[in-house]
Design a protein that fits this description.
The protein is mostly helical. 60% of the residues lie in helices and 0% in strands.
Amino acid sequence: MLFAHLKRILKLDRLRLRGPNGARDEFHMAATAQNLRKMAKLIPMPAQPLPA
């Protein structure tokens, strides 16, 4: 599921950087973005005060 998510949602179907180092860096950046999205969903939203 995670690799499919990288390919479909983050559009990582084709690497844009050249060479093994560039491919590794691009994949790490995409994985970091995916992890940040998952972390953002885990953080609870602050409670908003009810209008008076």
